[in-house]
Design goal:
- This protein is α/β, with parallel strands linked by helices.
- It folds into 3 domains: 138 residues, Dna Topoisomerase Vi A Subunit, Chain: A, domain 2; 383 residues, Rossmann fold; 54 residues, Arc Repressor Mutant, subunit A, CATH 1.10.10.
- It is 46% helix and 16% strand.
- It contains 21 helices and 21 strands.
- It has a 5-stranded mixed sheet.
- Helix 3 links the parallel strand 7 and strand 8.
- It starts with a strand and ends with a strand.
Length: 671
């Protein structure tokens, strides 16, 4: 029973104006608590109602569909600002629960977010912005930081500081701040004429809410403790989960096809932005497990192996001397067989004397193959500063001056491969499995993606890449610590995945439900359609998007069920979040590729305009196709239509006097 004083009640209504939820604020000794109540068949119940929660002041939002909407954090701040006559809303349950609310009523509207002056407030603002950016249609979105707020201040403090001013003056000041704030997202803008890639609207925030609860809580805690954007802990969490699973869990993703959980994740962040600290927190359980395993091996196993090796070497030496004194073929053959057996045993011990590893960092392709061979063909490449790895991939240390991605390709797909080494035996791998999590500087990621041979060879399309946009942070005294319970739950999950799947003798194969399989197939088919139209120029990248979704789904499934993941089917509740995360990475990839795509598009348009210079009376789609400017007649029609839509060309329809097929003739537009 709550023995506290009720100090505030705020009612949330549904679309029909009915009471849907009441949030009650209680105050006890030195603390305050909030409790939700909703009406059920049994009366009022202390819990949230089922489903998404409505926005605060929803009836007002629906009644004034053309008004600008302000978003505050918390009901008190919302009500205070609403006294000025502006339209204001918020979501229930504070800064960490924006994802529990249905924000669709704000789709297509002008929305101004007013963050509180603390880390949680800024994270809340970014979270809400990310949700709104994913709505359709897009609206106009701004984040306005109110000037002069104290630490942890909000719009109530801002209004109190202007208590002597008239409401009209306060509104005028607020609108001036809104006018001068940059637009984050503007609906209906012409992406073709913008310097900002159209895909970037959906790439701002990693959807942490798509992670299973244990992982979401840990990632959110890292966000708040280190004051980093969701994209950095989001990428790290996926990478570490993938590394913990290895080749031990896979999904039946189609007829005679299975997909594993190994991911290649590369994220960039500026120096001083929390890159290494984020990596340290999220990789800690795996690296500590690995360190404990190495210590156990060195103390308990290695001495026995060395002792056995010494004994064998002494026995081999003795047999060798006996062989030199052997009388007759039979005695010699007997010694030979004994030597053969002991030498084979010695080789086996030699192989076991490699320090066991779960991970590696900056190693060459040859060294990586050796490490895989001595660790059951499973490994994770983890680095909080992947400069050396980038240089290795780019071939900077290769005597032949060529990119060095061969083993990385094979270890992603699991294909059999042989790695030849100079003056040493080749390494043969039957089904290698590598997971990768590499954090680096933005310019290093750009240089990696700009290497044409890595893209054409297939490595870059297999990478989940993003610029996290994390920047250097100021030091603050109020950053919260990661809750011990959250850290423990996450560490227990990682350890259980390693023990169950990373060390599994054979991989476990899970089946998707019919609904999950259908969702994945719909996702695949939607990508195929876009590959024929607006994504035709990046088809080598889009060809991997659905595979990424499957791999992410296995990772999320394991994170959801832990050591019992192989006992469950892959549900639609896992497939849908996996698709959302895969789509987020796809949008990131398109944003990274925007400059090169735009350059290529302009080059193609330039060729069309050059063709027109030779044919001043106009050109047809067949002319563009025959001169090999594009690869097909359909693509030629699409290209000319796009140039006409952008005002570069003007078109007219012509039909032969005798009748027949109408042909569209294009000429350079008059400007």
């Amino acid at each position: 029973m709550l023995r506290m004083l009720v100090t505030r009640c705020d009612t949330y209504h549904d679309r029909n104006g009915r009471e849907h939820l009441i949030v009650v604020r209680f105050r006890g000794t030195n603390r305050k608590e909030f409790r939700p109540f909703h009406r059920s068949a049994l009366g009022w119940v202390m819990s949230d109602p089922p489903g998404k929660l409505p926005l605060f002041h929803l009836p007002d939002l629906l009644a004034r569909p053309n008004d600008r909407v302000f978003v505050c954090e918390g009901e008190k701040a919302t009500c205070e600002l609403a006294t000025l006559g502006v339209l204001v809303t918020t979501s229930a349950h504070g800064a960490k629960s924006a994802h529990k609310t249905d924000w669709q009523p704000l789709a297509g509207r002008e929305v101004i977010i007013l963050p509180d002056s603390d880390t949680e407030g800024r994270i809340y603002a970014q979270t809400v912005a990310g949700i709104l950016n994913r709505l359709s249609p897009h609206g106009i979105l701004k984040i306005v930081e109110l000037p002069g707020l104290p630490e942890k201040g909000d719009c109530v403090d801002w209004l109190d500081a202007r208590d002597s001013q008239s409401p009209e003056d306060i509104i005028a000041e607020l609108l001036a701040l809104v006018k001068n704030a940059p637009v984050i997202c503007e609906g209906g803008s012409d992406a073709g004429g913008s310097s900002e890639p159209p895909e970037s609207i959906e790439t701002r925030l990693f959807p942490l809410q798509c992670l299973p609860p244990v992982c979401e809580s840990m990632a959110q805690a890292v966000c708040q403790t280190l004051r980093v954007l969701e994209s950095l802990p989001g990428c790290c969490t996926l990478g570490v989960l993938s590394a913990a699973i290895g080749a031990g869990l896979q999904v039946s993703s189609g007829t005679n096809r299975v997909t594993r959980a190994n991911l290649y994740t590369v994220a960039s962040a500026e120096s001083g932005s929390g890159k290494s600290e984020t990596f340290r927190h999220l990789a800690k359980p795996l690296l500590e497990f690995e360190a404990a395993r190495v210590t156990h091996w060195k103390v308990q196993i290695k001495p026995g192996l060395l002792a056995e090796q010494k004994v064998l070497e002494a026995e081999i030496s003795k047999l060798t001397k006996l062989a030199a004194k052997a009388n007759g073929t039979a005695e010699r053959e007997k010694i030979r067989e004994e030597l053969k057996e002991k030498l084979a045993t010695c080789d086996q011990i030699e192989a076991k004397l490699f320090t066991p590893a779960l991970s590696c960092e900056d190693v060459t392709g040859e060294k990586l193959a050796v490490l895989l061979a001595h660790n059951r063909e499973q490994l994770a490449s983890l680095s909080a500063d992947a400069l050396a790895i980038v240089n290795i991939l780019l071939g900077r240390y290769n005597k032949l001056d060529r990119t060095d991605e061969g083993i990385y390709l094979k270890a992603f797909t699991g294909d059999r491969c042989k790695v030849d080494r100079q003056s040493r035996e080749s390494v043969l791998l039957e089904s290698p499995c590598l997971s990768a999590l590499w954090l680096t500087q933005p310019d290093k990621l750009d240089s990696l993606l700009a290497e044409r041979s890595l893209s054409d060879g297939g490595l870059i399309p297999r990478i989940l890449c993003c610029h996290t946009r994390c920047e250097a942070r100021e030091i603050v005294k109020t950053a919260p610590a990661i809750p011990a319970s959250v850290e423990k739950a996450y560490a227990d999950l990682i350890r259980s995945l390693i023990e169950t799947y990373r060390f599994a003798d054979e991989p476990f194969t899970i089946e998707p439900t019919s609904e999950a399989l259908e969702a994945m197939n719909v996702h695949h088919n939607a990508i195929v359609k876009r590959r024929r139209t607006d994504l035709r120029d990046v088809t080598i990248y889009t060809a991997r998007w659905n595979e990424h979704a499957w791999r992410i789904a296995v990772v999320l499934h394991a994170a959801q069920h832990g050591a019992h993941a192989h006992e469950h089917t892959l549900e639609i509740a896992t497939a849908d979040p996996a698709i959302k995360i895969a789509d987020w990475f796809a949008a990131q990839q398109l944003e990274v590729l925007f400059v090169s795509r735009d350059k290529a598009r302009r080059e193609v348009w330039g060729k069309v305009l050059s063709l027109l210079a030779d044919k001043p009376d106009g050109i047809k789609a067949s002319d563009v196709y025959r001169t090999r400017i594009v690869r097909s007649a359909d693509e030629a029609h699409t290209l000319l239509a796009a140039m006409e839509a952008k005002g570069e060309l003007s078109g007219r329809d012509e039909q032969p006097e005798s009748g027949g097929h109408v042909t569209r003739i294009f000429m350079r537009a008059k400007k």
